[in-house]
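Sample intake sheet
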Amino acid sequence: MTEMHRLLQRQLKKFGFTADGLPQNLESWTQFIAHINKTYYENDQDRYLLERSIDISSKEMRDINSKLEYAQDIAQMGYWHYDADTDTATWSKGLFKILGLPPSNVVLNLSSFLELVHPNDIAGLKKVVEKALKEKEDYDYELRVRNQDNDYKWFRTIARANPHKNEISGVLMDISKRKIIEEQVLELNNKLVSTARLAGMSEVATSILHNVGNILNSVNVSAIILKKNISKIHYKKLSAIKTMLDENINQLSEYLLNNPKGKLGRVLNLKPLIKQFRHTASRLCSLSKQPLTSA
C-alpha cells in the first residue's frame, strides 16, 4: 500500500479514524468528506496565491533585470561574480557586450578571463584578487582587456569580497574614452611645460640682453663723461701761461724767481694738469679698445 499523505493522516486522526477502519455511520463519513473537501479548497487557494505571487515576482524580476541591463548598457558596464571554491565565474549580458564578446554558455573561470587580459596587467590583477579572497579586502583596479577584434580597451573593475564565503563580486566599466582624454591632457601638459621652458629661456636671454644693453649704455655714458672731462681741460690756462712766458722771455729767470705772477710754483702746477689729461685719455682709449698713442 502506498504511504498515506501526512495531511490526510492528520484529518483521519482528527476524526478518530484509521486507515484500516471505516466510519461507523454515514453522518461521520459525511462530515469527514466535507472537512477534506474544505481542506483541499483552502490548499488550492493557497497554491493559487503562491503561484500568483511567484508569477508577479517573476514578472517584476524580469522587469527589474531588464532595467538593470538597460542601465548597464547606458553606463557601459557589466556585472560579474566569481566563486573561488568551484573556480566558476558568472557574467551578465552587459559584461559580454562591453567586452565585445558573444554571450556563451561555456563555464567561465578565472583562467579564461586572464587569457583576455593584457600581459602587463595580469600580475596586478592576480594580486588584488588573491588579496580579496584571503583578506576579504575590496579592490579597485584598472586593466586592459582584449575584445573579439583582438583590440585592447581600458576597463575599471570594482570588486567586493564576501566576508562569509570564498567569493567576490563586482562590476567592470569601460573607461577607454576617459583614458584617451587623459592621454590628450598629458600630451597638452607636456607641451605646456616645454613651452614654459622655452619661454623661461627666452626670458633669461632677454634679461641677458637687457644687462648687456645696460653695460653698453654705461660704457656710452662713461665715454660721454670722459669726453666732457677732456673738454674741461684748461686750454685757456695753458695758453695764458705760454703768452706770459713769451712776454718775459728776455728776463725769464728774474720773472720766475721774483715776480709773484711768474714764480716757479705756478708753472710746476702744470704737472697735475698734464697727469689728469693723460689719465682721462687712457680711460677713453680703453673703452674704445684702441691703444693710446703717445704724443
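Comment: The two ends are 155 Å apart (CA to CA). Strands lie at 77-83, 88-91, 139-146, 152-161, 167-174.
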